[in-house]
Amino acid sequence: MNYYITTDEKLRELVRTLAEQKWNIISADKQGTRFMYINDGKDLTVDAKARPTKVSAKQFVFPKSEPLFFFKKEHDDLKLIDPQAVQQKTVLFGAKPCDAAGLPIMEKLFNWDYKDEFFNKRVENTVVIGMACDYTDEYCFCTSVGLAPDSEKGSDVFLVPGADNHYVVKEVTPKGAAFIAEFKAIFSEAAQGDIKAVSRTQPAPEKKFNVDEVKNWLDGHFESEYWSKAGETCLGCAQCAFVCPVCHCFDIVDENCAADCGRRVKNWDACQFGLFTKHASGHNPRETQPDRYRQRVSHKFKYYQDKFGETLCTGCGRCSRNCAVGIDIAEIVANIPM
Amino acid sequence: MEALQKIAKEALASKEAAFIIGYARVPGSQKTRPFIARDEAEAGQLVFDEYCQNNLAVYLTRIARPKEGKMGIVAKSCDVRAIVALLQENQIKRNEVYIIGVNCSGVVEDPAQPLSKENLAGKCNMCQAPQPAGTDTVVGEAKPYERADDKVGKLLAQLDSLSPQERFAFWEAEFEKCVKCYACRQACPLCYCEQCIADKSQPRWIESSASVRGNFAWNMIRAFHLAGRCIGCGECSRACPADIPLMLLNRKMGMIAMKEFNYRHGSNMDDPTLVGSYNNSDRNDFIM
Ligand code: SF4
Ligand code: SF4
Ligand code: SF4
Ligand code: SF4
What we know:
The complex is a heterodimer of chains A (338) and B (288). With 338 residues, chain A is of the alpha+beta class. Helices cover 28% and strands 21% of the residues of chain A. In chain A, strand 2 and strand 3 form a beta hairpin. In chain A, helix 6 packs across helix 9. The site of one iron/sulfur cluster (SF4) has 13 residues of chain B, from helix 9.
């Protein structure tokens, strides 16, 4: 495993070089709302002390709305047209451990029975430059779900911020190594002395619960009084699912472009919507909001474990931080009457 | 706080109210959140102070109606306005709700910070009467508070001075951020339709795609459906994870209703609604 050194200024220079070479460059915006495409070194935001962006970075591998194909009526024929292939090389800057870890977690779902070529192609084309995190608030709980502020899961290259705008750079995957080799001018070889452990100024989030105990309880408590109170004030928006780095439900719909053409699109969907499980008959197996909230918790801490051996949560706290009615998933899980 | 809890306990004990929709403290924090008290012990958890941002009227149309007793609700004057709007729109009846009015001294914008002139919710800036009227009972005292800069008003004036093309570009950039989570709708006390037009699929009026077209359609239709109905509580804006300044639209709609029709929704439960009434002096020069 090789280590390098770089600086803030060098990373901005890297953005300029990448822009010239027509890479897609993704960075958090200045307000901390979301990740977005940038084209200029001055727009780069790499900030270990920043709060996780309100909306996660998942939309760059799993877009909020993605055309699968287009169709066009030609005389009596229907012509199918593939969308433009995803081939542009992409780099995601400054993903926190709780963002980067989302990619390998979602990868399991998108490669289970059907291999989602759209998702896979995007992941394949993206170099994730993760960054150790130096932020903690009452909503963070990465340490409760097997991650930590310095987890490299999902990163190809990992930055650890040091003094004076310097970063210790670690190559994590072969893809990351190739990226560093391609842009050697940005990353100088680190001497042994440079790689001292960099201390956090914030304490790591405290551990709030034990995922195995939670899973055990969930295994036997589909019907429990606990749910009716836990989900009682939930408004059933899907903000929590849409900002989440690992929620991955989608809906496939056809939309018209004009009278004789249209497209089939894959759109984000979420289990907190009443419509999500509503049958054509009108029957809804998850009739009340508490039923839907139970689904949210169970999918994250039980079903995904059952199926893929992973927790469907990175502990980023986004869902709770943003919830208009103050529902905190970590608190709800930690308060389970085990 | 004690007065509020006492009234809530009495209302529950006498079965006047089946439950009380109120605020409770988030453990270990000064923040509060909606809480539904169903017994005396739970009523003892109710609080009210400057950290109570939520407009609880949203629950009146979402919670299961009790078989016996009324829905109790703790309401600041701005929340009362939402309740009155729901009464005007026949969504609830006055004898179905037990309103515990709370005198208000302004609430915070950012609940992580204490109340100050800089950290005052936008709605409090616009508040005309911090003392609620027409409630079943009132508790607490309303202390005067310093009003802040009217940021929304300023931005609106700035937008109004732009050309339509420039304004369009502004909204295009804002709506692009929308993820179609519908948190704006779900948090809104006046968005109570059992089936929202955005959820209708036969035919599909509003594309479910969070694409520029779908996002424009959604945000514009929501603004239109709230025209003359929005009571300015700001919950949509607060709930939006994409930080879209939805209050600009709402405020503009409210200003038009006031200017053109001298109408302010949620002011008086006996007033007919703006779209549900007709006045001979209404403008009709747009009819060809
Ligand atoms: S938990 Fe909060 S964010 Fe999630 S659906 Fe319920 S109200 Fe919306
Ligand atoms: S469930 Fe909440 S805390 Fe967990 S990864 Fe999703 S947004 Fe983050
Ligand atoms: S549109 Fe927004 S500001 Fe207006 S009543 Fe609804 S939530 Fe409140
Ligand atoms: S809350 Fe914001 S992001 Fe969500 S649907 Fe409404 S405008 Fe779009």
